[in-house]
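User: I'm preparing a small set of examples for a lab meeting where we compare how different chains pack in three dimensions. I only have the primary sequence for this one, and I'd like the structure in token form so I can line it up with the others. Please keep the answer compact; I'll paste it straight into my notes.
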Amino acid sequence: MLKSGEASYFKDFGTGDNRWGDFTATVVDPVDDTSMWTIQEYAGENNMWDTWWGSITPGTSVATPTPAASATPTAVATPTPKPTATPTPTPVPTSTPTPSPLVIGAKATLPNAHTTVLYDASLRITGGVAPYTIDLVAGHLPRGFSIDQTSGAITGVPAAVGTWYPTIRVTDSGSNRTRKKFSLTVVKVTAAYCERTMICEVPRGAMVINTSQGD
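Assistant: Understood. Below is the structure token output for the 215-residue chain.
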């Protein structure tokens, strides 16, 4: 062996094949044709290669080789990776559902109220955007009546008979408005009504003759 390697060596310069043997030669000594000179590469440290030359005479021991100056390999530039642009996702617009129209569904002629009997008639408000604000904007309600903002109903216990014509306006939380004019009649409670509905006491002294009759 002329010279053993000092480290592992691998350099393919992007070809996939380890480069080796670029600097190798063996020639006959011009003075002594029984001796030869050889120059070979060997693996040096830090993945570098060096050269080593020496004289070989057949039938004798190998002469002590004389080290040769090693060639300095040319540094190979490491390619700089190109940044890959990351696509920006396009936001998908979210559609906002359109609320149905704001409607006061109760009939313009409200059910009759009866004196001394609790009255509760829903305005049947639908559509728009809840919650709602309910206002009396024209006319009047019977004395003792009010509008329940939570249930959307006209409630109360009437004391006097008569007919009233309130105009009621509803405003939703989206500032949409609608209004409707109603008529509300209060009639005197009768024994027949109390007997039929069982929601009131028969007026004292009254006689129920036919409970199937209207009041």
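A couple of notes for your slides: The chain has a mean pLDDT of 81. The chain has one helix and 15 strands.

User: Perfect, thanks.
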